[in-house]
Specification:
single chain; 4-stranded antiparallel sheet; 208 residues
């Protein structure tokens, strides 16, 4: 029998689960931002996965699928990572043809292979350390021209037009729908209750 406080308690944990999924969704967009934003997203996603698992434990303590909530956070975040930047630029981006390569940068690491990037000039705007969409084989030389999609708001890093595709953009609403559907499924599914044990039949003493 449920107590009067149980609906409120379930509501709080449902909000916690929803916020964890929402934060994971937003972190997908952070990975497309310049600076330290992508590094901040990693611990936030780990924390969200833990909080989602905790909320799931409280909402469905007898369920065998407690790992479903952390996995849902990772799925929502992953879809947002792949499609978030492209979706943002599809709405707020502006394609600028013929950006000039001003220099080639060399990035060396103690445990990783040397990588190269380009500094570009798009009109009056300077783009630093742009890695080509096709990988290191497509690094341009000084004086070459590159088409870019630039964020008018200045929030996201630039992409090349070939990276702003419809299927990447479609992953963002799919991610949002998946998160909402998971919360609804957790709340609407009946909670498991152990049934009464079946009555044991007693055999007559004279049964042979």
């Amino acid at each position: 029998m449920s107590t009067p406080r149980e609906p409120r308690r379930r509501q709080r944990y449902a909000v916690l689960l929803s916020l964890a999924l929402l934060a994971g969704f937003v972190c997908g967009f952070l990975t497309g931002m310049p600076g330290m934003a992508p590094l901040v997203a990693v611990p936030v996603v780990v924390l969200c996965a833990f909080l989602a698992g905790f909320a799931m434990l409280k909402l469905r303590p007898n369920s065998s699928g407690l790992l479903a909530a952390p996995l849902a956070v990772l799925v929502v975040t992953g879809l947002s990572v792949v499609g978030g930047q492209a979706a943002w630029l599809a709405v707020f981006g502006e394609q600028v043809p013929g950006c000039a390569v001003t220099s080639v940068n060399e990035h060396t690491g103690s445990k990783s292979a040397t990588k190269y990037s380009n500094d570009l000039l798009c009109g009056e705007r300077k783009i630093a350390a742009h890695f080509p969409a096709g990988g290191q084989d497509e690094v341009r030389g000084t004086g070459d021209r590159v088409d870019l999609v630039i964020d008018r708001t200045g929030v996201m890093r630039v992409l090349e037009p070939s990276e702003v595709t419809w299927w990447r953009t479609a992953l963002v609403p799919i991610s949002a729908v998946a998160g909402v559907a998971f919360v609804v499924a957790v709340l609407k599914r009946r909670r498991w209750k152990p049934g009464k044990p079946a009555a044991r039949r007693e055999l007559g003493r004279d049964f042979l």
